[in-house]
Amino acid sequence: MISAIIVNHNGEAHLQRCLESLENQGPDIEILLVDNASTDQSVAVVKEGFPQIRLIEHHQNIGFAAANNIAARAAAGDALLLLNIDAWLEDGALDLLAQALDRDPRMAIAAPRLLYPDGGLQFGWSPARGVVGEALQQLRNRFESRPWVHGRLARMAGRIAGRNWFTAACVLVRAAAFRNVGGFDERFFMYFEDVDLCIRLENTGWRLAEVDGAVARHVGGFARNSEVDDIYRPSQLLDHRLHRPAWEARLVERRLRKKYGDRTVDDWLPVERDT
User: Is the pTM of this model over 0.70?
Assistant: First the structure.
């Protein structure tokens, strides 16, 4: 069985398309939706239109990482489909992802090719570990719509920096592997929790791969708003302190202090400096 996990916060506009795409993937899917204190009609839409879904309601927004962990503990499946509310699977994609996990017992994450709704190529992975990886990522972002970026640049990035992570917008994760590394680190409220998970999986010997032929579409940018820095930047600092050399973490911190001020950055700092 596959357990699909969706975390929602005011995603009413995307709910129906996302949930209907799962219904089209086959019968042996358990769907768990964690609602993080939505103020729109999301909960009513689920209760009225999709009564078969296991709905877990929270009266405060506990964050993306924590919400996924709660659903993962309640899930019955051998594999967990982590799916953003503004993403959906094309027909047959889930079967291809599941087959990839079945073929390789050391594969922890099977990821689809991500497209924008209009069919444009979207990056679902990044070589974002270290200075070289970050430089490649910036080049990647600038030319995202160009096919060569997904071909030649992707191969070069894999050789130089490695495909260190796949976005949790849509991935199939082996449940045993997810639990083996403790799931998402809940110090990440949102952003970088998928980077951290993939690094910890790789460090414990698990494999991650994009699966040929499996396609999902993702709107992207759905969570962006005027408060995004207060969410993104603390996660960025935590990621750098956990997984980057100390000098890189200090460089990022210095840059953020210059832009946002010492008091703001001090409030963002999530871990002690000796990590």
Answer: yes
